[in-house]
């Protein structure tokens, strides 16, 4: 596998880095404190093609490969992990799933505006009683002839308050277990669809997370994705790719915290010399650097395999598991290296530590990743 980046990759990385520094850094502390969604920045990211990076230009996307997506996600997450998850969900959970599995009509109507970033999408699988145990869907979509009647509650939905189109997973035939589950495209304005209050979160506070409530929502038959009963396999396939996005987000959080800690250690003096000259700090930074590089390689490997059309269930899970643990460890160390300053908002690393935690939870907890990996290696 060749991990040499092309000139185009370097340009994308630079564009994402410049955008993050110039447009996301100003105000990132305030957005975190006040839970403000980065509306203007998301609009600008749409203009740069970051909302539908891997979608074919035929459907309004940028037509880039998955490595480009990893590069952009890392750079954006170094500065603002909240903005990064907004684009990650739109790219990998919504657009990628629609491009691969939706009908031509669905692609024209829904994928195209989503990939252009004219509207945002959300992916609604989790429920109050079905998070990791995703087959236990309580939301029902009952076949009523020419439409499905959707009832139930979804929880912790990223982009929940700002999306226009939602991919909703629901149970149609409970007696068939996961084979009775379907995926639907649901529009925000439809009668009976209500958006719950915004969650007050530990981290990624600039992103909006809501519950969704469906009461007798009429979903036209043509809004089902794929064949009857395809919904669970659809969700699993989409999440395999989504995990590369979250792995890259975690990688970016770790790399951002490391860069700040390295700079701080080179400038801050204690006991007559820069703290990086104390072995306790130098070794910590060395470990951080190695873990980040290993996480980056796992992300590139999974992305390259995705572009080659290989099964990425294990490689995506490995990248997410390792990168999210790295994000947690590195951000804790970055706070430690900053000492008292690390505990203060203006130094950024405390926010990164809070943001890192969710990467071990959403799009499959670390425990779920271990299930996927252990099943993969024992087959
Ligand atoms: N890739 C492809 N297919 C998979 C798969 C994978 N990783 N894992 C399971 N499947 C398929 C199986 O092959 C099987 O299909 P067939 O019947 O056609 O053969 C089907 O799914 C059922 O598989 P299992 O019997 O193994 O199902 P299970 O009940 O044991 O659960 C699980 C499998 C891997 C634990 C799954 O439930 C899972 O991934 N849970 C985690 C869900 C998750 O990631 N939730 C995150 C919510 S989304 C989110 O966070 C969004 C956000 O807003 C950021």
List the helices and strands and how they pair.
Elements: H1 7-24, H2 28-34, H3 39-47, H4 66-79, H5 81-101, H6 104-116, E1 121-124, E2 140-143, E3 147-158, E4 165-171, E5 181-187, E6 193-198, E7 209-220, H7 231-267, E8 269-270, E9 273-274, H8 279-307, H9 313-338, H10 349-359, H11 366-378
Parallel strand pairs: 1-4
Antiparallel strand pairs: 2-3, 3-7, 4-5, 6-7, 8-9
Helix pairs in contact: 1-4, 4-5, 4-7, 4-8, 5-6, 5-7, 7-8, 7-9, 7-10, 8-9, 9-10, 9-11
Structure classification: alpha+beta
- Total DSSP E strands: 9
| List of distinct ligands in this structure | acetoacetyl-coenzyme A
**Order of helices and strands, N to C?**
HHHHHHEEEEEEEHEEHHHH
Strand order of the largest sheet: 2-3-7-6
First CA to last CA: what distance? Answer: 24 Å
Mean pLDDT: 97
Task: Tell me, briefly, the overall form.
Answer: globular
Largest sheet: 4 strands, antiparallel
Which bin fits the share of residues in helices?
40-55%
- Radius of gyration from the alpha-carbon trace, in angstroms: 21 Å
Report low-confidence residues grouped into runs of 5 or more.
none
- Sheet-strand content, in percent, reads 5-15%
* Number of alpha- plus pi-helical segments: 11
